[in-house]
Prior knowledge:
With 293 residues, the protein is an alpha/beta fold. The protein has twelve helices and 14 strands. The strands form three sheets. Strands 3, 4, 5, 6, 7, 10, 11, 12 and 14 form a nine-stranded mixed sheet that branches. A three-stranded antiparallel sheet has the order 9-8-13, with no helix packed on it. A two-stranded antiparallel sheet has the order 1-2. Helix 1 packs across helix 3 and helix 2 packs across helix 3.
Amino acid sequence: MRFNFNDLHFLVQAVDNGGFAAAARHLGVPKSTVSKRVAELEADLGIRLIHRTSRSFVLTDVGRDFYNHARAAVIEAEAAESVVQRRQAEPAGTVRITASVPVAQFHLADRLPALARAYPKLDLQLHVTDRFVDLVREGFDIAIRSHFAPLPDSDLMQRRMRVERITLVAAPNYLARRGTPERPEDLAGHDGLLTGPAAGTWYLKDNGSREVQVTPAARLVADESSVLLKAAAAGLGIACLPEAMAAVPIANGELATVLPDWTAGSVTSTILTPHRRGQLPAVRAVIDFLAAG
């Protein structure tokens, strides 16, 4: 059995408005159009849906059942259309983002201006802090967190933003003074710039999945990557830093990659958002933009 889906819309409007004439006025079409479409629907179905005379307009028993399903189908179709319209509409409104200092400096500082230009009706608000932020309680739409291990399960939506290698870097003048390591074991004789007292051993892996543990001499310990970056550029020693953080100093010659075939693991940046806020068009636009970068 086949019928024109648009005829369901005419039937629903006729019933909801109490007749063909009222439905025609509501739809802005001739009365004959509504009457004809409902008649063709009845012909396609092979049943009478409406008892109609010059003075009455009453659904038949089967017509009432059919109308209930038809109305539900029309509502679902309109909801589907509205989803597309919302996606196509220009995102607008306030989006509150929280991120750590390194994420803000090395991932968002260049991306947010581009995002603001792409969506001029967005009001972007970035709060930079290294403390743990409760998104729901503090009213944030998005948090971006960098982590070495998988994040614990939570009620937050997660979307990976990027995964980057952690590479070994040092200033050219340091390498000229102390020599360039040719194998991981050589690092034991070098000054290391460490993230913490307990992080004195570096676990390195090459492209062939060979793993080596090395312990450089602790020259400086700091739990802030930006400090280690500056210390490495100043020639104090060798540091393990994410690729994005070291990219510009390497490009301008302040730093050089040490043992380029080896990495000290990887760091993942993940976009987190509460489920309800994650469905808002403005928030979704920001998430899609950052994840695509």
